[in-house]
């Protein structure tokens, strides 16, 4: 059963659309340290997250500043924190301990450059980098793409063959992101067999809102691949 996270929720209409189409989790980008289209301040995030119905997981996407991350976790009370910054492994481990102390789980991405194909991590070896993230104590590993201008939402896929090898080698639930859309997510799920998939730009329209047809088609494609 591959789960679906719709990320970059910044409008209430998009929240209700995603839930109605069957999303398992919603991602809220909160006070992110880079200029991204989906960024929310904590008050706006709190309002949206409060509107999320029961049985749908709330994930905040944050990064870099440990004090800010902990403050946001305390205020927003998400089910999970996605550490999507450039946190070193040692800092990640410390943040995981602090966030777990608040009763919240932690997701951490291993990101691959769309320009070079290399992973953005302390180790250039993607399998060693994944192992280091696992040892930091996180609850799930995300594989995503990153560009020189965007930390996520690049529209570019990661190497699915590498992703499958990483899934086999780590004990963590693996969440596949990066360049997914309704036209390829079924193939991605078949190739990688991830615990979940995470989408943002692949279900958006030209003005940055979630496209009802794209959201519905994406979740249907994942649902069909579950059989």
From TrEMBL:
The keyword Plastid does not apply. SUPFAM superfamilies: Ribulose-phoshate binding barrel. GO terms for molecular function: phosphoribosylanthranilate isomerase activity. It comes from the Bacteria. It catalyses: N-(5-phospho-beta-D-ribosyl)anthranilate = 1-(2-carboxyphenylamino)-1-deoxy-D-ribulose 5-phosphate. Its EC number is 5.3.1.24. Pathway: Amino-acid biosynthesis; L-tryptophan biosynthesis; L-tryptophan from chorismate: step 3/5. Residues 4-221 form the N-(5'phosphoribosyl) anthranilate isomerase (PRAI) domain. GO terms for biological process: L-tryptophan biosynthetic process. Keywords: Amino-acid biosynthesis, Aromatic amino acid biosynthesis, Isomerase, Tryptophan biosynthesis. Belongs to the TrpF family. HAMAP family: PRAI. This is N-(5'-phosphoribosyl)anthranilate isomerase. It comes from Desulfatitalea alkaliphila. The gene is trpF.
């Amino acid at each position: 059963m591959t789960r679906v996270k719709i990320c970059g929720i910044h409008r209430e209409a998009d929240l209700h659309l995603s839930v109605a189409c069957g999303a398992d989790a919603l991602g809220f980008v909160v006070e992110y340290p880079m200029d991204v289209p989906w960024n929310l301040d904590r008050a706006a995030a709190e309002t949206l997250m409060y509107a999320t119905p029961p049985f749908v997981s709330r994930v905040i996407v944050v990064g870099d500043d440990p004090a800010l991350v902990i403050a946001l976790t305390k205020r927003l009370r998400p089910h999970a924190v996605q550490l999507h910054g450039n946190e070193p492994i040692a800092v990640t481990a410390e943040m995981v301990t602090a966030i777990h102390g608040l009763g919240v789980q932690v997701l951490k991405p291993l990101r691959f450059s769309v320009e070079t194909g290399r992973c953005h991590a302390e180790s250039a070896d993607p399998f060693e980098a994944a192992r280091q993230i696992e040892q930091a104590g996180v609850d799930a590993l995300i594989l995503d793409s990153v560009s020189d201008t965007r930390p996520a939402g690049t529209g570019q896929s990661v190497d699915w063959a590498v992703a499958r090898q990483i899934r086999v080698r780590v004990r963590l639930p693996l969440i596949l992101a990066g360049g997914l859309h309704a036209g390829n997510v079924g193939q991605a799920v078949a190739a990688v067999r991830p615990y979940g998939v995470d989408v943002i730009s692949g279900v958006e329209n030209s003005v940055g809102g979630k496209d009802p047809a794209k959201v519905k088609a994406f979740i249907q494609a994942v649902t069909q691949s579950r059989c």
